[in-house]
Amino acid sequence: MPCGGGGPERVSEALSFPGPPAQSVSRWRTMWLMLATVTAPVLIADQASKLYVASHLQLYRSIPIVPHLFDLTYTLNPGAAFSLFVSLPPEVRSGLLFTITAIAIVVLIVLLGQARELSWGSVGFALILGGALGNLIDRVVRGRVIDFIRLHYYGWSYPVFNLADSAITIGVAILLFEALGTARHTQAD
To answer: Could you list the active site residues?
Structure first.
Protein backbone atom coordinates (compact mmCIF):
# COMPACT_ATOMS: atom_id res chain seq x y z
CA MET A 1 0.00 0.00 0.00
CA PRO A 2 1.49 3.39 -0.93
CA CYS A 3 2.31 5.92 1.76
CA GLY A 4 0.26 9.05 2.16
CA GLY A 5 -3.04 7.71 3.45
CA GLY A 6 -4.63 6.91 0.12
CA GLY A 7 -6.74 3.83 0.60
CA PRO A 8 -8.77 1.84 -1.93
CA GLU A 9 -11.46 4.52 -1.94
CA ARG A 10 -9.02 7.19 -3.20
CA VAL A 11 -7.69 4.87 -5.87
CA SER A 12 -11.19 4.05 -7.14
CA GLU A 13 -12.08 7.78 -7.18
CA ALA A 14 -8.96 8.54 -9.20
CA LEU A 15 -9.75 5.76 -11.69
CA SER A 16 -13.42 6.59 -12.16
CA PHE A 17 -14.45 7.69 -15.62
CA PRO A 18 -16.76 10.60 -16.30
CA GLY A 19 -20.18 9.58 -17.52
CA PRO A 20 -23.80 9.36 -16.56
CA PRO A 21 -24.59 8.87 -12.90
CA ALA A 22 -24.90 5.24 -11.84
CA GLN A 23 -28.57 5.79 -11.02
CA SER A 24 -29.49 6.68 -14.60
CA VAL A 25 -27.49 3.74 -15.96
CA SER A 26 -29.39 1.49 -13.56
CA ARG A 27 -32.69 2.96 -14.76
CA TRP A 28 -31.82 2.36 -18.41
CA ARG A 29 -30.65 -1.15 -17.60
CA THR A 30 -33.90 -1.91 -15.75
CA MET A 31 -36.03 -0.52 -18.56
CA TRP A 32 -34.23 -2.43 -21.30
CA LEU A 33 -34.23 -5.61 -19.24
CA MET A 34 -38.00 -5.36 -18.74
CA LEU A 35 -38.56 -4.58 -22.43
CA ALA A 36 -36.43 -7.54 -23.52
CA THR A 37 -37.58 -10.14 -21.01
CA VAL A 38 -41.24 -9.25 -20.47
CA THR A 39 -42.66 -6.81 -23.05
CA ALA A 40 -41.08 -8.35 -26.18
CA PRO A 41 -42.04 -11.97 -25.35
CA VAL A 42 -45.63 -10.88 -24.57
CA LEU A 43 -45.82 -8.96 -27.84
CA ILE A 44 -44.32 -11.83 -29.87
CA ALA A 45 -46.57 -14.49 -28.28
CA ASP A 46 -49.64 -12.28 -28.74
CA GLN A 47 -48.99 -11.52 -32.40
CA ALA A 48 -47.95 -15.11 -33.22
CA SER A 49 -51.09 -16.54 -31.59
CA LYS A 50 -53.31 -14.04 -33.42
CA LEU A 51 -51.66 -14.82 -36.77
CA TYR A 52 -52.10 -18.53 -36.13
CA VAL A 53 -55.78 -18.17 -35.23
CA ALA A 54 -56.49 -15.88 -38.20
CA SER A 55 -54.82 -18.28 -40.63
CA HIS A 56 -56.20 -21.56 -39.22
CA LEU A 57 -59.74 -20.78 -37.99
CA GLN A 58 -62.78 -19.44 -39.73
CA LEU A 59 -64.25 -16.26 -38.30
CA TYR A 60 -66.67 -17.03 -35.43
CA ARG A 61 -65.83 -20.73 -35.50
CA SER A 62 -65.28 -22.41 -32.12
CA ILE A 63 -63.02 -25.34 -31.41
CA PRO A 64 -63.61 -26.91 -27.99
CA ILE A 65 -60.36 -27.46 -26.10
CA VAL A 66 -61.89 -28.37 -22.74
CA PRO A 67 -65.61 -29.11 -23.26
CA HIS A 68 -67.96 -26.73 -21.41
CA LEU A 69 -65.01 -24.64 -20.21
CA PHE A 70 -62.49 -23.45 -22.82
CA ASP A 71 -62.79 -22.95 -26.59
CA LEU A 72 -60.76 -21.26 -29.28
CA THR A 73 -63.22 -18.89 -30.95
CA TYR A 74 -61.96 -16.52 -33.63
CA THR A 75 -63.61 -13.09 -33.36
CA LEU A 76 -62.75 -9.55 -34.38
CA ASN A 77 -63.39 -6.89 -31.74
CA PRO A 78 -63.76 -3.34 -33.07
CA GLY A 79 -64.06 -1.93 -29.53
CA ALA A 80 -61.91 -1.97 -26.45
CA ALA A 81 -61.87 -4.64 -23.75
CA PHE A 82 -65.24 -6.34 -23.33
CA SER A 83 -66.41 -4.59 -26.53
CA LEU A 84 -66.40 -1.14 -24.97
CA PHE A 85 -67.12 1.71 -27.41
CA VAL A 86 -68.54 -0.64 -30.08
CA SER A 87 -71.61 1.57 -30.42
CA LEU A 88 -69.55 4.67 -31.30
CA PRO A 89 -69.16 5.61 -34.98
CA PRO A 90 -66.13 3.75 -36.41
CA GLU A 91 -64.05 6.91 -37.04
CA VAL A 92 -64.64 8.23 -33.52
CA ARG A 93 -64.02 4.81 -31.96
CA SER A 94 -60.79 4.25 -33.89
CA GLY A 95 -59.42 7.70 -33.10
CA LEU A 96 -60.36 7.46 -29.43
CA LEU A 97 -58.89 3.97 -28.94
CA PHE A 98 -55.70 4.82 -30.84
CA THR A 99 -55.21 8.01 -28.80
CA ILE A 100 -55.88 6.33 -25.45
CA THR A 101 -53.56 3.43 -26.29
CA ALA A 102 -50.78 5.69 -27.58
CA ILE A 103 -50.92 7.83 -24.43
CA ALA A 104 -50.90 4.70 -22.26
CA ILE A 105 -47.83 3.36 -24.10
CA VAL A 106 -45.92 6.61 -23.61
CA VAL A 107 -46.84 6.72 -19.90
CA LEU A 108 -45.81 3.06 -19.44
CA ILE A 109 -42.43 3.65 -21.12
CA VAL A 110 -41.84 6.67 -18.87
CA LEU A 111 -42.78 4.64 -15.78
CA LEU A 112 -40.46 1.81 -16.84
CA GLY A 113 -37.71 4.36 -17.45
CA GLN A 114 -38.10 5.66 -13.90
CA ALA A 115 -37.77 2.22 -12.28
CA ARG A 116 -34.54 2.24 -10.29
CA GLU A 117 -34.46 -1.50 -9.84
CA LEU A 118 -36.30 -4.61 -10.84
CA SER A 119 -39.55 -4.91 -8.95
CA TRP A 120 -42.99 -6.42 -9.31
CA GLY A 121 -44.15 -2.96 -10.33
CA SER A 122 -41.75 -2.84 -13.28
CA VAL A 123 -42.89 -6.34 -14.31
CA GLY A 124 -46.52 -5.17 -14.14
CA PHE A 125 -45.79 -2.10 -16.27
CA ALA A 126 -43.88 -4.23 -18.81
CA LEU A 127 -46.76 -6.73 -19.07
CA ILE A 128 -49.31 -3.95 -19.62
CA LEU A 129 -47.02 -2.36 -22.21
CA GLY A 130 -46.67 -5.63 -24.14
CA GLY A 131 -50.44 -6.12 -24.17
CA ALA A 132 -51.14 -2.53 -25.18
CA LEU A 133 -48.65 -2.75 -28.04
CA GLY A 134 -50.13 -6.06 -29.22
CA ASN A 135 -53.65 -4.68 -29.38
CA LEU A 136 -52.45 -1.40 -30.95
CA ILE A 137 -50.76 -3.34 -33.75
CA ASP A 138 -54.07 -5.10 -34.45
CA ARG A 139 -55.95 -1.80 -34.55
CA VAL A 140 -53.43 -0.23 -36.93
CA VAL A 141 -53.08 -3.28 -39.22
CA ARG A 142 -56.61 -4.71 -39.18
CA GLY A 143 -58.79 -1.97 -37.71
CA ARG A 144 -59.99 -4.51 -35.13
CA VAL A 145 -58.44 -6.74 -32.48
CA ILE A 146 -58.32 -10.51 -32.90
CA ASP A 147 -59.79 -12.27 -29.87
CA PHE A 148 -59.88 -16.05 -29.55
CA ILE A 149 -59.85 -17.29 -25.94
CA ARG A 150 -63.37 -18.15 -24.79
CA LEU A 151 -64.05 -19.26 -21.24
CA HIS A 152 -67.55 -20.53 -20.56
CA TYR A 153 -69.54 -22.90 -18.44
CA TYR A 154 -72.67 -24.20 -20.15
CA GLY A 155 -74.92 -21.08 -20.47
CA TRP A 156 -72.44 -18.65 -18.90
CA SER A 157 -69.75 -17.13 -21.12
CA TYR A 158 -66.95 -14.69 -20.37
CA PRO A 159 -66.18 -12.18 -23.16
CA VAL A 160 -63.72 -13.55 -25.72
CA PHE A 161 -60.18 -12.19 -25.19
CA ASN A 162 -56.57 -12.68 -26.30
CA LEU A 163 -53.04 -12.96 -24.85
CA ALA A 164 -52.57 -9.18 -24.89
CA ASP A 165 -55.69 -8.75 -22.77
CA SER A 166 -54.38 -11.42 -20.40
CA ALA A 167 -51.01 -9.66 -20.06
CA ILE A 168 -52.76 -6.35 -19.33
CA THR A 169 -54.99 -7.98 -16.70
CA ILE A 170 -52.09 -9.79 -15.03
CA GLY A 171 -50.01 -6.58 -15.08
CA VAL A 172 -52.80 -4.58 -13.44
CA ALA A 173 -53.29 -7.33 -10.82
CA ILE A 174 -49.56 -7.25 -10.01
CA LEU A 175 -49.66 -3.46 -9.60
CA LEU A 176 -52.73 -3.70 -7.35
CA PHE A 177 -51.16 -6.40 -5.18
CA GLU A 178 -47.96 -4.39 -4.94
CA ALA A 179 -49.90 -1.25 -4.00
CA LEU A 180 -51.88 -3.16 -1.36
CA GLY A 181 -48.66 -4.65 0.02
CA THR A 182 -47.03 -1.22 0.15
CA ALA A 183 -50.10 0.26 1.86
CA ARG A 184 -50.12 -2.52 4.47
CA HIS A 185 -46.38 -2.14 5.03
CA THR A 186 -46.76 1.63 5.43
CA GLN A 187 -49.62 1.21 7.91
CA ALA A 188 -47.60 -1.28 9.97
CA ASP A 189 -44.75 1.22 10.35
So the answer is: 147, 165
